[in-house]
Amino acid sequence: MKKSSIKIQGKTIPVISLNTVVVGSGAASLSCADHLYNLGVTDMAIVTERVGGGTSNNTGSDKQTYYKLSVYGTEGDCPHEMAKSLYNGGSMHGDLALIESVLSAQGFYRLVNIGVPFPHNRLGGFVGYKTDHDPRQRATSCGPWTSYEMVQKLLVQIKRNNITVYDEYEVIGIIADKKRACGIVALDKNKLSSPTFGLTLFHAENVVFGCGGPGGIYKTSVYPVVHTGAIGLALEVGAKAVNLTESQYGLASIKFRWNVSGTYQQVIPRYISTDANGGDEKEFLNPYFKTMGKLATDVFLKGYQWPFDPRKIQDYGSSLVDVLVYIETVVKGRRVCMDFRKNPRGGDGLEPFRFDQLEPEAYQYLEKSNALFGTPIERLKKMNPMAIDLYKKHNINIEKEPLEVAVCAQHNNGGLLGDIWWESNIRHLFPIGEVNGSHGVYRPGGSALNSGQVGSLRAAQRIAHVYGKATLSQSAFKTCAAKKVDALFAALVDLKKTAKQSTVGPFRAEFQQRMTDAGSHIRDISACEKAIGAAYEQLRQVSAMTVRHISEIPEAMKNRHLVLSHVAYLEAVREYLRAGGGSRGSYMVMDKNGVPVLPGMLEEWKCKPEDPSFRDTMLETVWNSATGSFDNAFTPRRPVPDEESWFENTWGDFVKGKVFE
């Protein structure tokens, strides 16, 4: 690592030159840095907005899942079987599915070896369970904080190896030239008041980009408030995105952002709605169900059918609950809560809750869990007391108060396009973790954590074996960086002209509301068309933002890439709807000629069925700087490779380094 400086617009800007800069400090980024170190790439550093500030360290559920190859039990499994499970979810490249399968056990056992406390039995077997979209029992968990545990143990490795971390640095630009990345621009947030605003350049042969999902573009979101995402930084330099249409949505608490999946639903809490002030309490689900047994079973099923899924709406499926919550909160403007203090009560033609009314799947689960008794909170104490403690740590006592919830954006299955080494079409740029769009439509629960660990290894291997030597001189870097820095510096100078009123918050609130209205789990082509017109107009107004104090500058600079991101997502949604795509994944497409959500009720709620042919395509989205808009194209997905490898040949190719080409 070398430190120098360059002059731009008469200002001296520090330059840090190194082989690889790793952006972000989530589980994928930390893992990649650790892999790089172990592979001999020590000339690197991590640059992060805040250590511990990302999604990995701040999210979970009642039992946060990690998905990997089955490694215990009598049920057979193999990488090709797991690859089929990933691939069959639709719109996922088969070679990526196989890679994620082949390397899943290696990634898992590495986490075990550094101390992540995945549970095993007395024989040392890591027993699994089934998760959503999982035909076997490949899932495991450390409890509510699986990804947090991963981050904490990986941070130990980073500290042990003395890997340099630039903390409190806001990345505001990627430097790229001739379709290759060569560094980043960041703000040292402790030097915002300096003449250069703390601008710092990282001259790097490789940029590992682990910035997470697009949490900052939604109003109704379970992404932690501290996490906004930064995919727009890559989009603006021409990095291709894929499947931006495919995000996951589900019920989550909103005072403290947390998924209310698993045991939170399996104990069958009472769902109520109130007016804005907490009055006029109603058990709003009752009128839509014929029996209390079906209502209670649907609530139970939300535990492991947690993501909103349009296939589970008809015939009183569990995702009907999500639709009814949406109608109550968005259409009627009421508040919805889960009340663990009482069992669901009767009314509107329904009898009070009784265990013997439950359908067999729910009844047998509670019976095996010795939980056929009491109230929801008493059952939760029996089945998962950690789920209660989690909320208490955030000053919410669900033993004494209802828990306010909504259907929230939770995870982006799409993201930036990457090849089999997780490398972008912008060479030397490696999107890893959630920002990499490898996940497809119906991914098994927990597969994203596995993907992040696998992608971090693949990127590190490619860098270590192919991109380990410097190819871009300091002078060439300066030429490449000058135009980017000029534009960013001008924006910073403009923001420094502080105003009487800040527009940073209102500017963000505008596109967040637009995404939640038109680009979330309920989609309509006319609403999307209208939203895109407004989105481009707001994009054109980005330079008009004002701040009251220099401390707001980092958030203002975030808005610059977030507003671009939300345009990209809306453009992809529109392209899919224009092409005739229907309801799939975790969103419902409204269609006046479609299938009724609930015959006899909600007559205006009709959804367009999925067209399965779209599962064999990938929707690619790329920024066209010449037109100032996004281009979209459907491309065929690659099948799962079915090639045999002879050991002696593989050995020879590995020794010669051919496998990394």
Automatic annotation (TrEMBL):
Claim: Oxidoreductase is one of the keywords in the record: yes
Top-level taxon in the UniProt lineage: Bacteria
Q: Which Gene Ontology molecular function entries are recorded, alphabetically?
A: electron transfer activity; flavin adenine dinucleotide binding; succinate dehydrogenase activity
Coiled-coil intervals? none
Q: Gene Ontology cellular component? A: plasma membrane
Which residues belong to any copy of the FAD-dependent oxidoreductase 2 FAD-binding domain? 20-258
InterPro entries to which the protein is assigned, alphabetical: FAD-dep_OxRdtase_2_FAD-bd, FAD/NAD-bd_sf, SdhA/FrdA/AprA, Succ_DH/fumarate_Rdtase_cat_sf
Q: Which UniProt keywords apply?
A: Flavoprotein, Oxidoreductase
Keyword Lipid biosynthesis: yes or no?
A: no
Which biological process annotations from GO are given for this protein? anaerobic respiration
Identify the PROSITE patterns for this entry. PROKAR_LIPOPROTEIN
Q: Which Pfam families match?
A: FAD_binding_2
Please state what the protein is called: Oxidoreductase
What organism does the UniProt record list as the source?
Candidatus Raymondbacteria bacterium RIFOXYD12_FULL_49_13
Taxonomic path: Bacteria, Raymondiibacteriota
